[in-house]
Amino acid sequence: TSVQCDWCVAFPWFGMDIGGTLVKLVYFEPKDITAEEEQEEVENLKSIRRYLTSNIAYGTTGIRDVHLELQDLTLCGRKGNLHFIRFPTHDLPVFLQMGRNKHFSSLHTTLCATGGGAYKFENDFRTMADLQLHKLDELDCLVRGVLYIDSVMSSGPSECYYFENPTDPDHCVQKPYLLENPYPLLLVNIGSGVSILAVYSENNYKRVTGTSLGGGTFLGLCCLLTGCSTFEEALEMASEGESTRVDKLVRDIYGGDYERFGLPGWAVASSFGNMMSKEKRESVSKEDLARATLVTITNNIGSITRMCALNENIERVVFVGNFLRVNTLSMKLLAYAMDYWSKGQLKALFLRHEGYFGAVGALLELLHPS
Amino acid sequence: MCAHYARSVETSPTMAECGRVDSHTMDKSITLPPDEIFRNLENAKRFAIDIGGSLTKLAYYSTVKHKVAKVRSFDHSTKEAASDKLYEISVQEEVTARLHFIKFENAYIETCLDFIKDHLVNTETKVIKATGGGAHKFKVLIERKLGLKVDKEDEMSCLIKGCNFVLKNIPHEAFVYAKHADSEFRFQTTDPDIFPYLLVNIGSGVSIAKVESEDKFERIGGSSIGGGTFWGLGALLTKTKRFDELLQLASKGQHSSVDMLVKDIYGGSYGYLGLTGDLIASSFGKSATADKEFSKEDMAKSLLHMISNDIGQLACLYARLHNLSRVYFGGFFIRGHPLTMHTITYSINFFTKGEVQALFLRHEGYLGAIGAFLKGAEEDNPNQYSWGENYAGSSGLMSVSPDMYPMQRARSGTFDMLEMDRLDRQLVNLPLLQEPSSYIPDTVDLTEDAPAREYWLFCFEDALDGVVKRAVASQPDMPEAAVRAEKFRQKYRHKLQTLRYQPFAYGSLTVRSLLDTREHCLNEFNFPDPYSKIKERENDVALKYYQKVVKSLEELSWEDRQFALVRGVLAGNVFDWGAKARPWLVDSYDQWLERLKGPPHKCALLFVDNSGVDIILGVMPLVRELLSRGTEVVLASNSGPALNDVTNGELQILTERIAAMDPVIQSGLRDDRLTLVQNGSSSPCLDLSRLDKALAMVVRERKTDLVIIEGMGRAIHTNYFATLSCESLKLAVIKNSWLADRLGGKLFSVVFKYEVPAGKPSQEAAVLTP
């Protein structure tokens, strides 16, 4: 029953996003392969499919996010599953070596890639794996990916969600959000660094600003301050720490609220401000430091985002990027910050596929060149 | 700076004693040199204190007794008083108000409080206004030591009050910092309308306030990532405790080993977005690893960039949202640190693409103390007065910065001072300035012009002996005058030396500021008017020739007379000026003559220069010619003495004497068509943005349509490029060969600059005249 379109690109279908910290790979696994096709399918292709779909971990650092897999997706007339895979950028040589071993280049496929690494490693792809990259702009891919995933996620768990009662920790719960008419939209992509885009339509967006204080800063500082080495470790520590021992709060200075200027006592007056004192430096734990780092970076992103939203006159903010992966702490902080400081004017939205939109956009570019 | 520093160490014999003393060892046992630090404490009333994390700023109001020279006409009705003297010169004591501000490290606070207690005579004061984060910590100590009640004031509102005060009263208060320019500090001419502006205070956190008027401001935002983050996080990362040391580390580091740059991700630039490869993509992005060591310097540098960029970005977002282009930065993160001023400036330039400039303030460290003081002094209404920075009593920018020329440090330990004199009159703009916001009085900025700076500093140093001699000679009846004159010499020479290494210490360095500093120093040591007797003698001589000169002018044809009058003013300006053949160096005499053939001006404002021949035989004949033409005349002279310039007091007497000989002047005075006003200044130069308010009123009321500025100080060193909204005439003989050379002429070249504002044809009048 499958409708084979002859203009379609030959398998395998990949989209790749090579960031500063992580490589994100999406792979479309066709589930409607006819017997005829199966016979024609070269061994290499089969082996790649089998390798990717039968494992959830690749080497020591590659991971397939099974919970994000999109099943029964129709893409370019083909039905199949979309897989989401990531591995650290510094392991790219291992990946290339694997591609070489599996004779990936013999498939004569175009590999669509975005992110800075598509430029930086273009030469390595050619020399190490004999692969020619089709380089794509990361923000184009990001916007395209976000809008696509949102449009295909009609069944199953909602792609877009928000936090209800963000200012009340006891009743703060995750709720699905229907992003029906998404424009205008502020899209905040938190990877190693942060890019903030104002999206007015599928083809009309601009990069408003960015900040170098992003996920890379959180992890980088955590590694220096606590000796940890992975994002998961850093988050684990942060979840057990108390940032108020590290930060100087408004109430530490004014004894309570700074009423004259409407600043609540719990607000942070100076991030790491208590660490100016030797005694306090000696009394904090690594967990406290990790938590303070997380809070500092997250609040700062929130603050810049809020100012951009005001300057651009946009009320809806969608946060994406791998900094938010398994990072409910930051998401709730962002939800809180958007709501509190805007007096309920701004809504923070999140997407389940967090960091994969660039890679999805790259895949779409392969199938539907714009 | 470093090269200069090294040289000074080698050549100065006193340097061994001046070596930098570690502040930790200078504890409470320090003895304060009272004549330098807490001056005029005996008359002090009203104190305010701003205690920050490491520095204390003390403010007090006091009165200063100092000598002023007064002239008084003899009573000519009684025969016996009619001596050979023209008028009576007397030196009187005058009491003026002065604001003192002192900044010192918190370590000295107890010693200072003890000192104040011991020297405070006037105990009417009951409260001390206090602000700053440390105010509560030292509250008990202050109350116990001084017996004053500590009255706490909100920090932000004090800062803003202080900021308004310095912006209004101190020219060249604000500057742009440009690390790689010829002059790092580019001082801004302050727009007479200082509002609205954004004040970004970077203390331990960041506060951003929008200031709309004297009484209206709003804290529009802030950030928790500030100086405390740099300090706290920096201390954790580098195990370095002190803020200054952290900055030192940062100055030596390479952030690119810690930060992930765009080129680390892209291999080059991100061309599509125009992001260059060196841009930081992720601060500390490269330190996300457990198995690599990073140097303290590199981490400190990366941290500094991260924080500066973040603050700059937020400041820009707020500036854009509120549509503000003036953004001032302050707080301990900025205070006197070229490194942070540079990184903040860089960030602002980056985020606004040059549309907004980061502005810094010379007296930023004093804002809180000034504001707290003003809050306590509201009943004295200090804002109704104009105040002027006293160059003699103020330390200048960067006086205590560790990297700077160490002389000043040695002199006063780590004490920095600002003194401001209350001026008798309120100062305002000349209403006839074409563009008040872009008016720059001075012709040459010696801060940026190194050869000119060298020359003039040498000149002033060279002339010092003569000035000292003159000062001593002016007070023959006072035997201690020689001692005072010697102190004056020390002080002024020290100022000149400071300016050699820190030309930016008091704003833009100019010939005017050098002259003014000298006047301030002379006043400081009670030489209020070294030229008083010389001026009197010269006035006396000139008066004897007045009628003869007027008579010979009357005999000339109209056209010859006009030229003779101009020559008279020019010749009076310098004795040795011979008959200089025209054309002069700058020569628009023909246009001026054509203009004179037209209808008379409504009112001419004349800024006069020297006593003696200049005023009596040069200016007065021109005045009577103008009066005869039907033009009203306003004569603006100095309020206080400066060199041999005629003062308003002297001019009153001289004019009366002339009126007694000359019916034209007499009727002019009687009919109020000739008015004498003071210009509000005691400078040999002229700042048209700081003139007596009464003068401005007269100018406006009389619909002044001609401004005449004469003499080198007022028409060449200053105002040479000033553009006015009415006709103007600038006349001078260049009495300095270096300057003549600079302007492309020879010694005693003549400048005759007649200007008509664009759009106002001067010839229309000429056409109408038969």
TrEMBL record, chain A:
This protein's encoding gene: PANK2
Origin species: Nothobranchius furzeri (Turquoise killifish)
Gene Ontology annotations for the cellular component aspect, listed alphabetically: cytosol; nucleus
Keywords: ATP-binding, Coenzyme A biosynthesis, Cytoplasm, Kinase, Nucleotide-binding, Phosphoprotein, Transferase
Molecular-function GO terms, alphabetical: ATP binding; pantothenate kinase activity
Entries under NCBIfam families matching the protein: panK_eukar (TIGR00555)
Assembly information from the UniProt record: Homodimer.
Assigned protein family: Belongs to the type II pantothenate kinase family.
Pathway it works in: Cofactor biosynthesis; coenzyme A biosynthesis; CoA from (R)-pantothenate: step 1/5
GO biological process: coenzyme A biosynthetic process
Reactions listed under catalytic activity: (R)-pantothenate + ATP = (R)-4'-phosphopantothenate + ADP + H(+)
Name of protein: pantothenate kinase
Keyword Nucleotidyltransferase part of the UniProt annotation: no
Domain of life of the source: Eukaryota
From TrEMBL, chain B:
Gene Ontology terms, MF aspect: ATP binding; hydrolase activity; metal ion binding; pantothenate kinase activity
Keyword Cell division applies: no
Cellular component GO terms, alphabetical: cytosol; nucleus
TM stretches of this protein: none
Domain Damage-control phosphatase ARMT1-like metal-binding: 466-746
One GO term (biological process): coenzyme A biosynthetic process
Cofactor(s) it depends on: Mn(2+); Ni(2+)
Places the protein is found: Cytoplasm
CDD domains hit by this protein: ASKHA_NBD_PanK-II_Pank4 (cd24123)
Pfam families (UniProt xref): ARMT1-like_dom (PF01937), Fumble (PF03630)
Keywords: Acetylation, ATP-binding, Coenzyme A biosynthesis, Cytoplasm, Hydrolase, Manganese, Metal-binding, Nickel, Nitration, Nucleotide-binding, Phosphoprotein
InterPro entries in the cross-refs: ARMT-1-like_metal-bd_sf, ARMT1-like_metal-bd, At2g17340_3_helix_bundle, ATPase_NBD, PanK_long, Type_II_PanK
Catalytic activity: (R)-4'-phosphopantetheine sulfonate + H2O = (R)-pantetheine sulfonate + phosphate; (R)-4'-phospho-S-sulfopantetheine + H2O = (R)-S-sulfopantetheine + phosphate; (R)-4'-phosphopantetheine + H2O = (R)-pantetheine + phosphate
Task performed by this protein: Phosphatase which shows a preference for 4'-phosphopantetheine and its oxidatively damaged forms (sulfonate or S-sulfonate), providing strong indirect evidence that the phosphatase activity pre-empts damage in the coenzyme A (CoA) pathway. Hydrolyzing excess 4'-phosphopantetheine could constitute a directed overflow mechanism to prevent its oxidation to the S-sulfonate, sulfonate, or other forms. Hydrolyzing 4'-phosphopantetheine sulfonate or S-sulfonate would forestall their conversion to inactive forms of CoA and acyl carrier protein.
Subunit annotation: Homodimer. Interacts with PKM.
Classification via PANTHER family: 4'-PHOSPHOPANTETHEINE PHOSPHATASE, PANTOTHENATE KINASE
Stated family: Belongs to the type II pantothenate kinase family. In the N-terminal section; belongs to the type II pantothenate kinase family.
Protein's name according to its UniProt entry: 4'-phosphopantetheine phosphatase
